[in-house]
Design goal:
Length: 401
């Protein structure tokens, strides 16, 4: 497995894919873009800063795969873990697209100011906005009942300042939600129950929050040049996690973006000077990393993905069935946001309802026959055991007499 770093390059109209300091691929458009996200298993999605458009690239190809037309400028992006759905914040509304059909399936209204952050983890879609609120949506309920009016499962309110970033950990129904806002605090909730677990205080307003895989270390990225670290395990054992924090890492220019690598859990920081720098999460020491924009353009967006092997240009990976973005044209009228791409993969062949019912019936009958045969064997063995016990008892009594 390798870590691939995806970042905005020269003039925010270029996306670069790096492995370490080596450049793997370059993706270009003719306008500034923002809000990068990765669509499983091999697509990069970015939003235009000036037009209501989404751009999609194949990880192994330079040319744009597809465009989506939005009803407004995108303010936040996230994709479902399966890669079938894309959630987009458009001003104060949350819109979900079903990628196999290319259609918008639902528009959720739960905020009255611009959505600033989105995260999709398991069965929960979570949105944070500049109105100081965080909404937790049940994604399965929202997707399967797209024609009805939906209310969030929980609504969390932070003190008085906009939400700037969200992180949701693993753990299914017991997963924890971390949020940061401009009021210098980070809040932690249990998502399913809505129970507030902990409040963390930082010396400065934060633009981004990073949490390691074990959810034991919290890194708060300030709006200036500092990164603060809180160890939830060590600091709790010491009895106080609210003591005055000192910067864990300080860099020479303003931090514009940040991400953690998956394999070695190193910290990557994109700076306003155009540099990409790397640090150890454990010690805070600088690690070898040599990337700098030739035009000193700020690294505004940054994300890391882990792939088994990077697909080289013009050689896309082959999958046993079509990815949702690779589908055939449907008959009838198309919407502007519909995705139309030629299918080049072998389609997945599924049995019909009649065939499936017959297969299930045969399996049930076969299982019932095996169970009956097993019960007969048990009865035979039980009878045999009783005869052996009776014979042994009679033999002992006769010899004793």
């Amino acid at each position: 497995m390798i870590d691939v770093t995806i970042l905005l390059g020269e003039g925010r109209g270029e996306i670069l894919a790096l492995q370490g300091s080596s450049k793997l691929a370059r993706y270009k458009v003719q306008e500034p873009i923002s809000h990068l996200t990765f669509l499983y298993p091999r697509y990069i999605v970015a939003a235009s800063c000036k037009k209501p458009l989404l751009y999609v690239w194949n990880l192994g190809q330079d040319s744009t795969v597809q465009k989506y037309v939005l009803p407004g400028l995108a303010t936040a992006l996230t994709a479902s873990p399966c890669g079938n759905y894309l959630a987009v914040g458009v001003d104060n509304s949350l819109r979900i697209w079903h990628l196999p059909s290319g259609q918008q399936i639902v528009c959720l209204s739960g905020h009255y100011q611009k959505i600033s952050s989105l995260v999709w983890r398991g069965g929960f879609l979570i949105s944070g906005a500049e109105d100081n609120t965080i909404n937790v949506w049940q994604s399965a309920k929202v997707i399967t009942n797209s024609n009805s009016t939906h209310s969030p499962l929980h609504t969390f309110t932070v003190d008085s300042m906009p939400v700037t970033d969200l992180f949701c950990g693993l753990g299914g129904p017991r997963c924890r939600l971390f949020s940061v806002s401009l009021d210098n605090t980070s809040q932690i909730w249990e998502v399913a129950s809505g129970r507030h677990l902990l409040s963390l205080e930082f010396p400065a307003p934060l633009s981004k929050l990073l949490v390691d895989k074990m959810e034991s270390v919290v890194l708060g990225v300030s709006l200036t040049t500092s990164v603060y670290k809180i160890s939830l395990i060590e600091d709790q054992q010491n009895g106080d996690i609210r003591e005055e924090l000192k910067p864990f890492i300080t860099v020479p220019s303003q931090i514009k973006s940040a991400a953690l690598t998956d394999t070695d859990q190193s910290l990557l920081l994109g700076l306003s000077s155009g540099e990409l720098v790397k640090f150890s999460v454990t010690t805070g020491q600088a690690l070898p990393m040599s990337y700098k924009s030739s035009s000193n353009s700020p690294v505004e967006e940054l994300l890391t993905v882990t792939v088994a092997q990077f697909p080289r240009n013009n050689k896309p990976e082959i999958f046993p069935f079509s990815h949702p973005l690779d589908r055939a044209t449907c008959t009838g009228v198309r919407e502007e946001s519909e995705v139309i791409l030629p299918v080049t993969h072998t389609p997945l062949i599924c049995p019909s309802n009649t065939e499936f019912t017959a297969l299930v019936r045969d399996a049930v009958e076969e299982g019932g026959n095996r169970l009956s045969a097993a019960e007969d064997k048990v009865k035979q063995l039980s009878g045999l055991s009783e005869e052996l016990i009776r014979f042994a008892t009679d033999h002992i009594l006769s010899n004793g007499s």
